Structures are given as C-alpha cells and as structure tokens.
Amino acid sequence: MEADAQCARLHAVGVEPFERTLAAHGCRPLAAGPALDVLQVNVGKLCNQTCGHCHVDAGPDRDEALGAEVAEQVIALLRRHPISTLDLTGGAPELNPWFRSLVREARALGRHVVDRCNLSVLLIRAQADLARFLADHQVEVVASLPSFRKHGTDGQRGDGAFERSLEGLRRLNAWGYGRGGALRLTLVHNPVGAFLPGSQASLERDYRRELRDRHGIEFDRLIAIANMPISRFLEFLERTGNVDRYLRRLVDAFNPRAADGVMCRTHLSVGWDGRLYDCDFNQMLELSPAAGAPRTLAELLAYGDLARAVRSGPHCYGCTAGAGSSCSGALAP
Hints:
Blueprint: H1 3-12, H2 18-24, E1 31-32, E2 38-42, H3 68-80, E3 85-89, H4 99-108, E4 112-117, H5 130-136, E5 140-144, H6 150-157, H7 161-174, E6 185-189, H8 200-215, E7 221-224, H9 231-240, H10 243-252, H11 256-259, E8 267-270, E9 276-277, H12 280-284, H13 297-303, E10 308-309, H14 317-320
Parallel strand pairs: 2-3, 2-8, 3-4, 4-5, 5-6, 6-7
Antiparallel strand pairs: 1-10, 8-9
C-alpha cells in the first residue's frame, strides 16, 4: 500500500487528532532537540526475509540501499553532534555494503552502535563472520523474535524462521552475547495478531524461562513493541476487517505517561537516501519534517540544527497505547 493511501486510510477512521489528545491530557507538544540521543538510520529495504508484520515492507526483491555519500554524511553528523547512539536498521542492515564501515567509524568516535538483526541473516554463508564482527566492535544486537513458540514466530516470519532464529541466537551466545557483559543481546517481541503486547516484564520472564530451559539460550533483556498500523500490518488489518477496531483500541489505551517518552522527542530518523524524518514510522509513511526543518542530511549539515517540531498522525497512537511502545520498548509502567 502506497504511503499516501496508508495515511488516507488511517485518517478515514476519524479518531481525534493526536496533537489534540496530547493537549487534552496536559502532555507536552511533540518536539525534538536541540540535543538528541539516537540517530536511527534505515540503510535500505533489502532483507533475506519477508515478514508479515514488517512496517518497512522489506524483502529479497527490494533494491533501495544507502550508498557512500549518505554513509559519509551520517558519520559527519556524528562528528559534529554528541549523539550517543547510532541505531542501524533495515531491511536486514547487515546486507548493506556500508554497514560494517558505519559500525567501525561510529565505534571509533566512541558511539554506542545498535544492530537491529533478524537473526537468520547470521546463517547466510556470506555473513559467516558476522557474529564475530559484531562482538569485536561491541555492537548491541537487538534481535526480533516475535514469539518464544515455533508457531508464533513462523506465523509471522515464514516456515522455519523459529529454528533459524534459535541457531542465530546460539551463534551470538557462543561469541559471548547475552551473558550480562559488554555484549548486549536484546530480544524484541511483537504481538502475533491485532492486539497490544502484554506486560514487558512478564513477557521477559516467559521468554527467559522458555529459551533457557528448552533451548539453552541466554539474552540480556526483552522489549515489547506494538505492531504499527502501517505497511504490511495495515494490509493484514484490511484483509481481516480490523483497521477501525485496532486503531480505536490504540486510541482507547492512550497513556499520557507514555506520550512523554515517545522516541521522536530524542531520535532522528534517516532514510537510505539521506532524507530525514521524525521517526522510523513517519519515514515509512513518507511524512517529511515540519516546515522550516531540514529535509535531508545534506541540508542539516549545511545549515540546520537538531531542534524541530514533530509531525504526528493517527499512527502515533501506536506509540502511546498501554505501556507505550517505541524502538526501545515500553515507555511507562
């Protein structure tokens, strides 16, 4: 579904504008900067998997990819601003030819680096040394595992995805990930269906018990992320007649405490082509920054600063429902 069509479908539900809901609950308006914590870069849409919930619409047939110029601009921005974390996402970010260069350069600058990994990419023959590379550079691996049960993960990611994910986790464990030290392994849960995630703390206990007892796998923490009503998940909602019901479920579960910590306040999202967005979800809906804010990395480096107003839409209720949801997991108790 094209970005304009997605936006139109979400607005058609007719929920209260997100900014109006913020004001009604006494929440701060959405704004970011001037200091930011995370630069999140989507290096492209190429992926070795085609997952049913993917908000990026990534897959093996996608050729959008970050190139040398944008990679250099990313590092230039990190040199200029004390942004503490470079968060690399995709697609499968590791398949981009500039992925390892970005990791090396950012680590040389003393930045924390996050790799949002689908786990099965570790099993590709050409990536045989990937786990060692990540360990050598102390990259935090944030690994998607929708469910600790086979049918749940395979249902979202395709037959065999669960076993491939387990093998990827074993390889990371073998290099020291998930043992409570510097090599941090974070798992990501998202619901297998049109409902909100359960308690993040309870889910972490369940995952830890099941993965340790049944499979001998260790990890450091688990984060729970709500499925955003965009791209493939929006198409799933359309097919099952759940668009209105799901969006209203998000609205009814609005949590002012979560709204105060949404990631767009502290993140800047960069597309594979160097265009800027307030968050990864706005990027997938092609919602450019507000008027007056830099639209590209080149503009930001030339004359812009990091402070900006944030554009919102009905999808923003996905980050503020219940305990809240962001790329860092739950936002409120």
